[in-house]
Amino acid sequence: MKRFWLLKGLRFALAALAAAAAFGYLVMALWNAVVPAVAGLHPISWLQALALLVLSRILFGGLRSHGGWHWRHRLRARWDEMSPAERARFGEFAGRGGRCGQAAPRAPDAAG
């Protein structure tokens, strides 16, 4: 039984390494095809492309190993716990019909 799990883990590690190598090569190829011609920067190596992937993961994806959409579940749970008055107050704060944080579109004045 241990052998099965060892082989499965080894197969996963090899697949992860192959995927990292492929993504690194893809980033390197895209960078070297576009960026030097457009921005005048130098081409990068495969190792620099891998470092760029890791850096972008840290900056934009965080260091979590799971998906990033778990905040929706927490938001939904908070919404379900709100009273109707709290929901109305939140709707006024967020701006109905607009983007979050923007004021709601106003109706034109009757005098106008």
Summarize the structure.
This protein has 112 residues and is an all-alpha fold.
Give a verbal description of the structure:
There is one protein chain. The chain is mainly alpha-helical. It has a domain of 41 residues. Helix content is 68%, strand content 0%. Helix 1 packs across helix 2. It starts with a helix and ends in an 18-residue tail after the last helix.
Output mean pLDDT: 81
The largest pleated sheet is described as: none
What is the helix fraction of residues, given as a range? 55-70%
What is the tally of beta strands?
0
Note poorly predicted spans: none
Q: Could you tell me the strand content as a percent range?
A: under 5%
Number of H/I helices: 4
Q: Roughly how many Å apart are the termini?
A: 80 Å
Topology as a string of helices (H) and strands (E): HHHH
Secondary-structure content class: mainly alpha
Global outline: flat
